[in-house]
Amino acid sequence: MSYSARWMSDGEDDRRPSHRRRCANNSNNMPLQSTTSQQPITIGNRELTSRFFLAPLAGYTHHAFRVMLRRLGGLGLATTDLVQAQMLVSQTRKSMELVETSPEDRPLSVQIFSGVTEQLVQAAKWLEDHGYEGIDINMGCPMAKVNGSGGGARLMCDTTGATEMVGRVIDAVDLPVTVKMRLGWDNENLTAPELAAAFEQIGVAAVTVHGRTRQQGFQGTVNREGIRETVQAVKSMPIIANGDVRNSDEAFSMLDETGCAAVAIGRGAMLDPWIFRKLRDIEQGITPHKPTADEQVAFLSDHFHLMREQHGDYSCFLFRKFAAWYGGRLGIPEDLEDRLRRFESAAEFDSLLKEIRARHGERESEIATALIKVPNGPVEHW
Question: So which residues are the catalytic ones?
């Protein structure tokens, strides 16, 4: 059964960029906002009050991180890290960890990937049988280990085959099915507009477009015009824009410049976990919330210990990668951030936390010391 998706815009379907205006209370020169951002959006059978979503990030957007963002406020739809379809059906340990959820972790979609249609169908049925509310099919991952098996961005090379594959999944379940993809395989094969139009015809609930090609990987800049062309290729299906949105101005300008229905934020949420809260504040015409030192340290502590509830001592290893992202925003002195990337026990973490609290604000730079690590060399060798 397919779900039709509606882009709610006062009864109209105007895909031109909206005119921006300043917030009502703008004495502090607050960021500009889009006039469409406050309108609700319906995807499948779910009405979402926020148009700012959490994009899936491999290795980061796990249950604890999603819940922490929910507690800060302002987050719309969240999507899990990508899960291999066959591994999900087989209920491997890792796949079960990736789809771990809770009532607090809503609304949520689970992202699955495979180059085999039947595996995607079975995974979709498994998710429906186990009470999940939305399915997202990955057609954007640029990694060779995913593309080599026919999944991820490789699916964009065969628009007919991709459409038939997604159609099979839609027919198999009564859940909303969405797709996340890139602009295309390379600049000579920008198939996103064609695919989006085909997906709308078969009942896909929404499409997220990362504004780079597979050939780009995570290099270069996002092509907003390419996203806009994808928006213009559909009639009413929501197109969710993704890529290089790291602050509120970039989020609102993405809405305006592309005409997209929503914005999915990935690395921006890593750099500033309060980004969704700030976007909500701006929409409400109030000064964006600036977390206090106590709030910043509490966030760090709560994230680790919530992760530990699921992963136990292994959380020490999993949490290290967050240090380079959090250091700048959470005011962690550089030498303590370095130790946070190497701690080995919960006791050591708690000891470090005391030092961070005592020395908060001593950091020399507010700039994060690391972005998501991508493989070296040409993308063809990933």
Answer: 141
Final residue in a domain of this structure, among 259, 283, 307: 283
191: pLDDT strictly greater than 50: yes
Is 111 flagged in the annotation as binding? yes
Q: Please, are residues 41 and 7 in contact by the beta-carbon 8 Å criterion?
A: yes
Q: Per the annotation, does 373 bind a ligand?
A: no
Identify the sign of the CA torsion 304, 309, 313, 315. Answer: negative
Query: What does the alpha-carbon distance between residue 369 and residue 319 come to, in Å, rounded to a whole number?
Result: 16
Is-above-0.90 flag for pTM? no
Task: Provide the domain limits for residue 221.
Answer: 20-283
Q: CB within 8 A of 8, min separation 6: which ones?
A: 39, 40, 41, 42
Q: Closest Cα to residue 113, out of 77, 154, 73, 75?
A: 154
Q: Residue 211: pLDDT above 90?
A: yes
* 290 among annotated binding-site residues: no
What Rg, from alpha-carbon coordinates, does the chain have?
Answer: 20
Co-location of 219 and 316 in the same domain: no
- The pLDDT score that the predictor gives to residue 37 is 61
